[in-house]
Amino acid sequence: MMRSSKWIATVASIWIQCTCGASYAFGIYSSVLKSSQGYDQSTLDTVSVFKDIGANAGVLSGLLYSAVAVHRGRRNNHHASFGGPWVVHVAGAVQCFAGYFFMWLSVAGVIHRPGVPLICLFMFVAAHAQTFFNTANVVTAVQNFPDYGGTIVGIMKGFLGLSGAVLIQVYQALFKGKPKIFLLMLALLPSFITLLLMCLVRIDERDTQGNKKQLNRFSTIALLVAAYLMIMIIFENIFTFPIWASVTNLILLLLLLASPLGIAAKALKDESSERSSHSPLLNDHEDKEYDAAYEEEEDREDLNVVQAMRTQNFWLLFIAMACGMGSGLATINNISQIGESLGYTTVEINTLVSLWSIWNFLGRFGAGFVSDILLHSRGWARPVWMIITLSTMTIGHVIIASGFAGNLFVGSVLVGVCYGSHWSLMPTITSELFGVGHMGTIFNTIAIASPVGSYLLSVRVIGYIYDKEASGEQNSCSGTHCFMLSFLIIGCVTLFGSLVASALFFRTKRFYKLVVLRRLHHSARR
Hints:
globular; 526 residues
């Protein structure tokens, strides 16, 4: 039936992911928030910090998902007695509407100007909604496609990474020059889309042939959307488009985003044909023998967050992500100031900032897709990709520190792609090491490493050294020396992270061979 199909669930999740990354569009409405509330830059930065905390502190969304939507056993088809992923979506929609709506009321002057703590609370709640949408979509997708966790997480995380650019295209076409109205749209659009589609996001673990073929088609659409947005971002930073052109661009983008529905329809048709021609007697004796061995693996209990935190693997993953995610977030938070100190033009800086979302997407999507291919074909344990990406990040940070002409264009690509890759690798590795049962809680707990690492590297390293190098009344700094030492230190941090990832790889190499690959081989024979 269509509404319970994993393919329809995937399409609904993609559409929700495309609208729920409103925190990535903070730059559109931050200026009107600052002016309407009479904030200085320091106060606005404080509000931004609460945005980052809200968007990364997703432990509650994981706990809620485990309580209402966990599949209590792959073999007995028994679900939680109440609810499903839709409960998590509702919680996210309520928070999204409440947070952005109250901010809009404040900015529009409908209510008396609230104090800074209240605006920080509104911002936290609004951004916190993103973790509920993301947890419901990602964990459900992993349960629907357990054999291709990397690919499906890459698709979901990739579209989330693109959502900021999608929302900005809506702003350019419909609300350009009206950031107050855009803030109201952020309260209404993601909440409405989520409430409209949430009942379609369901867990459906039926074995179907051709999963990889259809997922490759979804992946192609994701790449086309990213390529289209990249072209539009570059052109918009060079040329000024009339309104009719912006509206036309938005319509083309929406048509691209609608195309996954055709893939789902094709998959349902193929699935129906396969069921009608399937012979259950084929290789029955052989499969029973293999299933008996596989049952022993299935008896392994999924770990909850407390049990996971008692393992060395959890903390190795947490530390590696603090180094990788933290350094990536610290880079994008300071990239404008780095560009100014090195003499980049405003257009070049804006292009660098805008294209970050594309490099972020390529990392999120590419790491999941490629790691799945090599896991299936060559048996490469997924943590090896953490070693590769953290080592590459080290090169990227050294390039940024070097200060040669065009260094930020090269360095931001390397760091952006590798930063994005961690957002698909980490949840997938979490599901493989600790099980899907409490995956939402565990990977959201590990995600706290991102703001922790960012704070330490942004404030205690980059900010501290910049202030030491700065001079004059403007407290500004110009030249390579402003950030060279900072990014050499950050390069050392990511190099250390690659060593931690190496320890995780060697600890889990045997596990991947005996458990993960065995499960994949079993699924391939069914």
